[in-house]
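Customer escalation, tier 2.

The customer says the design service returned an amino acid string that "doesn't look like it belongs to this structure." They asked us to rerun it and document both sides in this ticket. The original structure tokens are below, unchanged.
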């Protein structure tokens, strides 16, 4: 007989006591940092019931193996090893939902965030002064020991864009160091994107001003080991997230990135068509076919590198995926033309028919690519 296990008189009191604070640490190639961070947490949270959940994206350097060795010695340490999934936001969401404390903090493994602020953040939440506490870089008292000018400038620009376009009121919605009440996070979790890097911005934008937020300054330290997980694609991730939130999540961040790649593909198609016609004097059908093939190839490469980078295809799977993408997009082209003709018959406005056909094509290609090209394992 299967029966749910419920806390009861037969369970010792100490077994019913859980952590008050869960610290979530997303990792990728951080094996030299995790033990140092664990020791710092142990010292800082000595008078607090806590646990730490390292969420590792199958690091090639074996970060997950180091975390498991720590977990063998201390039951407060847990490891979530993700295979076939990538991205800081998704790692944070999975880690928070896999934890058990009423309060959860997110902190980087690169040792640049100031873990000594965690007790203060917890006190603000536990005393019901806030639902969210943010380690902020844009209030008085903040100090930086490891934030280069280029990265600081880009972050400041993104912060201003987010605040104005999404009407976010906190000073640093781009921070990666924050603590939130579990019950409030779980209310927002279904609205959050698992893609991208800016989980706090997603949380605040999805809350639409309903979170009581307090910001505190901290000292941003210098990276000791490893390298930053931020890359040149973060800007597009950020733009996609802003656009998704502006549509109230009617369209997903991944769909927006897919459509953006499609827009680039249109430019590639037209350039290839022009070169084939003007430089090689090719007949229009052959030039158009060349443009379509080059555009589809560039779209596949960009989508594999950006839109589906958490499911990136490699080796033989890359070739197989390219062939499947050609087939999907070929059918999508037929759907595009069919819808465009149907709309034009009803309302002979060329641009309206063209937009309707293009929208049908991108929706088809996106849906079928997810099913047949970048299938979840």
């Amino acid at each position: 007989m299967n029966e749910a296990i419920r806390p009861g008189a037969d369970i010792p009191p100490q077994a019913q006591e859980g952590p008050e604070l869960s610290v979530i640490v997303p990792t990728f190639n951080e094996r030299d940092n995790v033990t140092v961070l664990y020791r710092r947490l142990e010292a800082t949270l000595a008078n607090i019931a806590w646990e730490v959940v390292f969420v590792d994206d199958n690091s090639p350097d074996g970060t997950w193996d180091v975390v498991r060795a720590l977990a063998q010695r201390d039951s407060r340490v847990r490891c979530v090893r993700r295979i076939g999934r990538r991205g800081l936001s998704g790692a944070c969401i999975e880690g928070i939902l896999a934890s058990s404390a009423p309060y959860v903090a997110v902190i980087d493994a690169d040792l640049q965030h100031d873990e000594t602020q965690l007790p203060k953040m917890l006190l603000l939440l536990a005393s019901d002064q806030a639902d969210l506490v943010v380690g902020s870089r844009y209030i008085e008292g903040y100090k930086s020991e490891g934030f280069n000018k280029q990265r600081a400038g880009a972050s400041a620009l993104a912060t201003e864009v987010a605040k104005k376009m999404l009407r976010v009121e906190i000073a640093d919605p781009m921070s990666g160091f924050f603590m939130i009440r579990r019950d409030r996070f779980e209310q927002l979790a279904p609205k959050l994107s698992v893609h991208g890097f800016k989980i706090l911005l997603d949380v605040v934008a999805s809350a639409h001003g309903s979170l009581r937020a307090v910001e505190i300054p901290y000292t941003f330290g210098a990276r000791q080991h490893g390298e930053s997980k931020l890359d040149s694609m973060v800007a597009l991730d950020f733009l996609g997230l802003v656009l998704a939130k502006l549509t109230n999540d009617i369209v997903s961040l991944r769909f927006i990135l897919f459509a953006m790649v499609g827009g680039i593909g249109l430019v590639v198609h037209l350039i290839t068509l022009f070169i084939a016609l003007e430089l090689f004097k090719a007949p229009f059908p052959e030039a158009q076919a060349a443009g379509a093939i080059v555009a589809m190839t560039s779209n596949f490469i960009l989508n594999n590198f950006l839109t589906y980078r958490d499911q990136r295809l490699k080796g033989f799977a890359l070739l197989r995926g390219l062939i499947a993408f050609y087939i999907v997009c070929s059918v999508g082209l037929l759907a595009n033309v069919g819808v465009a003709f149907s709309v034009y018959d009803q309302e002979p406005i060329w641009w309206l028919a063209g937009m309707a056909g293009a929208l049908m094509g991108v929706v088809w290609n996106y849906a079928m690519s997810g099913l047949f090209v970048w299938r979840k394992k």
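Tier 2 assessment: The sequence is consistent with the input. Confidence is low (pLDDT under 50) at residues 1-16. The first strand starts at residue 21 and ends at 27. Sent an explanation to the customer and offered a walkthrough call.
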